[in-house]
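Narrative of activities, Objective 1.

The group set out to show that a structural description can be obtained from nothing but a protein's sequence at a throughput compatible with the screening campaign. Below is one input-output pair from the validation batch, recorded exactly as produced.
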Amino acid sequence: MTQLKSFQVKSKLDALIVSYRETPELLFQIPITNGKNGAMPSNDYLQKAAIATRSQLHKHSKLIESIRLLMIEHDVILVEETASALEARREMRNWWKSLSLEEKTKLETFGNSIQFKSYLSKYRGGKQYKILSVLAHEYNQELLELGVLDKNYVPVKERASKQSSSRIKIAKEKREDWEYLESLPLDTVDDLITAAEYSGAYGQVKQLFSSMLSVSKSASNTSNYKIAHKHFVDYLTQSSVSPETPLSEILEEFILSRFRRDYILPLIDSNKMAPYSANTLMSCMRKTLKRAKKIKSLGFTSFHDIEGFDASRVTNMYKPYSLKEREQINGAIASDITSTKKMMEPYLKTGVGSYPLTSDYKIIPNKGTLDNARYLFENYLDCKPVFYEEPGSVYGKAFLRIVQSNQIGLHELYKNWGIIPIVDRALIAPFILRLAQITGMNSDSICALELDDFVSEHHITKKPCLTYWKERSGGEKAYYLDIFNAELQWLTLSQADSVRDVFDTVKKLTENIRKEASTSISKRLFLIRSSGKTVFGKVMAVDSLVSYFDRYASKHDLRNDDGESLQLNVARFRPTFVSELIDKDVSIREIQLMLGHKNLSTTMNYLDRLDFSRIARDKIKAALSKIQLSAIEPKPKKKVTRTHLRNENNIIFTTPLGGCANIFEPPEFIKNSSSYTKGQACSQYNKCLSCENVMLTVSHIPELFAMRRDYLLLAQNSKIMQTPYGMVLKENLSLLEDILTPSEDAFSKEELSVGEQRSLFVETNIIDSVGA
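Output recorded for this entry:
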C-alpha cells in the first residue's frame, strides 16, 4: 500500500474523529493499551485505520489525544481503571452485543451465573477487575428477566453462611444440652429425668453418659463418652427399644455382652470399626455401667464384664484351626480334663514317712524329706492342702517349711500326689475350652452359664438344649442358646453327652467352694478360688479367660503350622466347626440350618468371610482329578441289580403319617441328605408330605387335619418357628394346605368335611415328626 503524506494522515484522523463523535459506539472498536498517562487507544489500531506509520502518528499526537478524550467522555476509558481491565471490559461488551437472543439463552451457566470464562479469554475476577463483575451482574440480570436464570437462587456463599450459622446453633444447643444434663444430680433413681421434663430420645441414657463428663480429664475423653453414647443409642434403636424406655428397663446383667456381640462385632466384621476404636468404646461403656451401679434403687447392681478386642487377632476370627492345630488343642484339652478327673477321685493314704518334728515343732535334722511331709499331710492335716498364705496349724507351717526346703513347687507337689491344689483358672480353663469346641459359643457366653442352663429334655421338644443370658425378672423368660446366632437351637445327642459331662464334672469340682460363694454368683457354673496374693482364697466367678489363653498355649507348647506359638482364640472354634461340616460334604442348606440363619444369603456371606482356602483347594483338586480320570477312562455303566430296593412285592410300609410305597428307595433329595444311610430304611418322617412315595387315602384325612391343627398351635404358642425346624413346619403346612383343598384329582369336599370332623378325636405327636 502507498504510504500517505502527513497531511493525508491528518485528514484521515480528522475523519475518524468526526465519525466517533457522530457514532460513539465505534469507540468500542478501538483496543485499549497502556501508555505513559494511563489507558490509551491502541496505536497499532489507529495506524491501520489512518494508513500511517508510527512516526506520522507521533506528529499528530494532539489528534490521538482527542480520540482518547472522546473515549473518556463516552466511558470507553475510565480514568481510575487499568488498561487491562478496560480492554477485558471492552471485549466482554462487544461479545455480548454480538449475541442473538437465542444464543444468549443457550449460554453455559453454573451457580446461577453465566460461565464467562468459557467464552472470554481475558475475563478475570478480583479487586482490579470489579468493572467486569459489574458488567457480569448486568448480563446475568438480563438472563434473569428472560427466565434463563433462577430468581430464587441463593448463592453458595450465602447458603454456606446459613448452614454454618445453623450448624453453630445446633452445636451450641447440643453443648448446652450436655451441660444441662451434666449439672443434674444422679445419686438415686429419683434424680433421673422423666419424659415430661426432657423431650429428647433416651433421655435417661444421655443423663447417665453426661454424668461421666465431669470425671473426664481431657477433651478427648469427653468426646469418647459422647461417641460411646451415640453408638449405644444406635444399638438401642437397632434393637427396637422405645426412646421413652426408662433406664431401669434398658440396663440388665448382659447389656455389655449383647452390645459387644450384636453391635460392635458386626461393625468390626464389615470393617466399619477398627479394633482400637472398639476397645475405646468398650472402655467407656464399662465405666458408664459401673457408674450406673452406684445409682440407688435403680435395680442395676451388676453386669457381666467382658474383654475387649485384640487387634492382632481380629483378622484370625474367621480362620478355622488347621487339622494339625486341632489335634494339638484337642490333645491338650483332653489331657487336662482326664488329669483333673483323676485328681477328683478320693485320696488314698500311702502310709509313707514318719513324724519329723521335735516337741517344739521344729524339724528334726535329716527328717525334712518329702515322705515325712506326706506323713504330716496324711496324719495331721486331714489330707487337705494348705498354702503359704494360709498355713493354718503349726503342722501346716512345718509341712510348708519341709516342702520349701526341698525346692519344689507346692502346687506341683500336690498334683504329683494326685490332689487338686486349688480350683483356679488353670483348672477350669480346659472345661470352658471344651464347651467352646462343641458349641461354638464365645468365652464370655460360656463363662455366664449357670448350674441349670443345661436342659437334658426341653418341655416342648423333648430334646436337649442350653440356655444362657436369661432374664432375671421373674425367672420365667429365657433366651435359648443360639449356638450359632439362632434364637433357638438344640444340641445333638453327641453334643448333649459332652455338655452334660462338662456340667457334671464342674459341678462336682466346685461343690465345696460354692458354699463360700456370695449369693450373686453362687449359681454360676464356673467358679474359682483365687490364687493371687491380693485376694488369695476368695471365691470368684469366671468372667473371662481371654488373658489366660496365651498362658494355656504356652503351657502345652501349642504351635501353628509355621512352627510359631499358636494364638488361642475361642472365636476360631466356630469356623473350625463349620470347616468340619464342609469336610464332611454337608450341604450349604444344612449349614444354614445349623448356623440358624434365616436367609441362605446370610450363610453365604458368612462363609465368604471364612478362610476355607485349604478346604477349597483340596476339593477343587479332587474334583478336577475325578473329571480328568472320567475323561481318560470312562467307566462303563453297570446295571445295578436290586433286591429289596425295588419292593417288587408292592408291600406298603406304614409310617407315622401314612403309607410308603418304597421305604428303602426314597427320592434323591432324601438320599443327598447327610442323615440318610444308604441301604437302610428311610426314617425322615418329617419329609413324608413332600415325598413321591407317600400314599395317602381317605382314612388318613383325620390324621392330616389333626396334624395341621397341631402345627398351627405350635407355630403360635412356642419358639419353634425361630428354629431351623420352623422351616420344615412351614413347608409341611403349605403341603397340608394343598392336600386338604378339594380337587378333582384328590379328595372331594365331602370326604374332607367328614375327615375334619373325625380329626377332633385324633391326637398327634408332631414334635417327634418335626424333629425326626
